[in-house]
Structure formats: structure tokens, C-alpha cells
Write a structure and sequence with these properties.
Strand 1, helix 1 and strand 2 form a beta-alpha-beta unit. This protein is an alpha+beta fold. The longest helix has 14 residues. It has 2 domains: 31 residues, no CATH class; 108 residues, 3-Layer(aba) Sandwich (GIY-YIG endonuclease). It is built from 6 helices and 6 strands.
């Protein structure tokens, strides 16, 4: 009798079946689960914080003149972190800002009209993991490091599965 691993994954109509089919060859069975229930929907009565004011974000900055992107994470508010990128660009400080370094070397500029918060996560370890997944997902990333090392299964999924745009992704302008 052959044993296989069983993993739970929140059902998403665009990607669940494809991931299930791809992981079958690794003897991994994917089981659909839905974590939303009536109690969860009714008990969250607080007003939601605007995404750009949320702490613990994974964000994406784009170059205005080419397809280069920078994916970053921060425990700070998105506007605070992006303000620091903006300040670095204005002061030509590329020491900790790979996209600013790209813009200086190539005479390009950061596209401040096209900033996206890709996801939010309060837990730093999970946020770092998510950041590294987004870095690998964006092929034209100028990030200096790829982040957390993933297993072969994660790398396989990232290179072979077409993911839709993240549901919570928003664009906003830094003033």
C-alpha cells in the first residue's frame, strides 16, 4: 500500500485543481477546505484599516521605464516604508534600495503611480516567506536576494502554475 501526504488548501477556483493535479506526481493529496464560516463573517465588526495604512505588508514597486520590479516587506505601515524608498530616490541613496540603484544606473525612475500592496501578514517569519514567494514569482525582480529557501515542490509550483493577481492587491500613490 502506497502512502501519500495529505495537505489542506483553501479552495480557489482558478488554481486549486491545477495545484492538485501537479502535486499528485509527488504523492501529495490536496484536500479543499474553506475557513470562512458564518461566525467569522458576522463577528468581525471593526472597520477595516485602509490597506496602505496596514502594518506588516508585502509590496511591489515598478520601474517606470522597463519591466524591473522590486518586492519588499515591512512591519511598518506601507506608506511609511514607501516614503523611505521615495526619499532614497530623491537623495540618490542606493545603499539599501535595489530599485533606486537600478534607476540610477539605467537613468530610469520609479513608477509612483503603480505601487501595489500584494499581501499583509503580521507574523514576520510568514511575511518573509511570502515575500520570497513573490520575488520568485516576478521574473524581472531586481531584489539582491531571493529570500527564504523553498522546497522543490514550492519551486515547481511557482514555475509551473499560472497564478491570478492577488485578490487584495491595491494600487495607491505615495504623496
Amino acid at each position: 500500500m502506497k502512502t501519500c501526504q495529505r495537505w489542506g488548501l483553501t479552495y480557489h477556483p482558478h488554481i486549486f485543481e491545477e495545484i492538485k493535479r501537479k502535486l499528485k506526481q509527488f504523492d501529495v493529496e490536496i484536500v479543499a477546505s474553506n475557513y470562512e464560516n458564518l461566525r467569522n463573517l458576522l463577528t468581525n465588526v471593526k472597520d477595516k484599516t485602509p490597506l496602505e495604512q496596514t502594518k506588516g505588508v508585502i509590496y511591489k514597486l515598478c520601474c517606470k521605464d522597463c519591466s524591473a520590479v522590486y518586492v519588499g516587506e515591512s512591519g511598518q505601515r506601507a506608506t511609511t516604508r514607501l516614503y523611505r524608498h521615495n526619499l532614497a530616490e530623491r537623495n540618490f541613496d542606493s545603499s539599501h534600495y535595489p530599485l533606486v540603484e537600478h534607476c540610477i544606473n539605467e537613468c530610469h525612475a520609479i513608477n509612483w503611480e503603480k505601487i501595489e500592496v500584494l499581501a499583509t501578514e503580521a507574523n514576520k517569519t510568514k511575511r518573509k516567506l511570502m515575500e520570497s514567494l513573490f520575488i520568485k514569482y516576478h521574473k524581472s525582480s531586481v531584489n539582491k536576494y531571493e529570500g527564504v529557501v523553498h522546497s522543490d515542490i514550492f519551486n515547481y509550483i511557482l514555475t509551473n502554475v499560472k497564478f491570478p493577481r492577488p485578490k487584495g492587491a491595491i494600487s495607491f500613490k505615495v504623496v
